[in-house]
Amino acid sequence: MYGFFAEYVSSQKTILFILDSEGNTIASRDVQIGKETFVQSLTSDMIDFSHEQDLYHNDIFAIGVVVNPTKSLGWETEKQFQKEVEKFFGFSAIVGEDSNKVIKRLLSLAP
Fold this sequence. Notes:
The protein has helices spanning about 40-50, 70, 80-90, 100-105; strands spanning about 1-10, 15-20, 25-30, 60-65, 95. By secondary structure, it is an alpha/beta fold.
């Protein structure tokens, strides 16, 4: 099983990662995702990226997103953003500003 991990750097750069259940990077890619459609674009970009790696929905256990959604993306609350990410991806989402904490929580969900 694998985890999706995304780190929002700026409106010019978001880094996508696919991690194994031990936290090792399987693949990574830089993409540009605008604030206005962040969740939808993240979903589309991450799904395309995972398919290129021959990974599909049943191969993924969760997603972690490093971002402050209220400050960086204009969302009202972090919880609202998290629920939207979960709705679009169809599995658990971890959201936070500290990449080490997000990865640790993400990996705790690995089967």
